[in-house]
Specification:
By secondary structure, the chain is an alpha+beta fold. It has 7 helices and 8 strands, in the order αβαβαααβββαβββα.
């Protein structure tokens, strides 16, 4: 834990070798991807003058077409969002020994610090976690496209579980985050996930003779383990969800 990236990155001029991916495991293509112009923006303030059904339809269409959208006027104050981001930055500027008190590989803990791909000691190659600048990219139409964030908006993408539950009607978009060579960037990501023993499967009402079941049932823990195992696979490897397609 004494080698946390956030600790030494304030002073170093070069990236240590164990933070540099081998060529066969790098994202590939042009990291400076062109901007995607098709990210839907949903204004939740209009829910007061629009029928809620219309807002729901906008969200459903965004998730059907792309699997990602941005939300503005969501009710979370800009001040609170700025305070949360500053708190994260302050945390990563703490001495390594203080941060180490929160280090854990136990995914069930409510608050924990981890570095890299779930296991700092065993990975060998480490993911750069603690680097709001342009960096989110989605895979669309055979290429990576950048997502330019709207200030104080929430960027929302649905996960593989909702694609399964919707029997493929909603789309889980492949995405990644790349570092910026000139400016430090921080992302605050939150997740809504089922319990590890939850059974994930297509909703029966969405399966019929004309729309057959596309995915087999699985426990969320099984999926999570498959996902983590695929984090280190070379570029071009199918997403974890491929393992559960019928």
């Amino acid at each position: 834990m004494s080698t946390l990236l956030s600790t030494w990155s304030r002073n170093v001029q070069s990236v240590p070798a164990n933070y540099v991916f081998p060529e066969d495991k790098r994202p590939g293509g042009d990291i400076a991807a062109p901007e995607c112009k098709d990210i839907p923006v949903i204004d939740l303030s209009r829910s007061y003058d629009l029928d809620h059904v219309e807002i729901i339809q906008q969200i459903m269409k965004a998730n059907h077409d792309l699997g990602m959208f941005q939300v503005i006027n969501h009710g979370v104050s800009e001040e609170l969002m700025d305070e949360a981001m500053n708190l994260f930055k302050d945390f990563f500027n703490m001495p390594a020994e203080d941060k180490a008190m929160h280090y854990s590989e136990d995914g069930t803990k409510g608050f924990r610090l981890y570095t890299s791909g779930m296991n700092y000691i065993k990975d060998g190659i480490n993911l750069w976690k603690d680097t709001d600048m342009y960096g989110l990219q989605i895979f669309k139409d055979g290429q990576w496209l950048g997502v330019e964030p709207i200030p104080h908006a929430f960027v929302i993408n649905i996960g593989d579980q909702l694609e399964v539950i919707s029997n493929g009607k909603l789309k889980s978009t492949r995405h990644r985050v790349v570092t910026n060579t000139n400016v430090a960037r921080t992302s605050l990501a939150t997740f809504i996930s089922p319990s590890l023993e939850s059974i994930i499967e297509p909703e029966r009402a969405l399966v019929s003779a004309s729309e057959p079941q596309l995915f087999k049932s699985f426990r969320f823990k099984e999926y999570r383990d498959t996902y983590i195992a695929n984090l280190r696979e070379p570029k071009g490897t199918s997403p974890a969800l491929e393992a559960y397609k019928l």
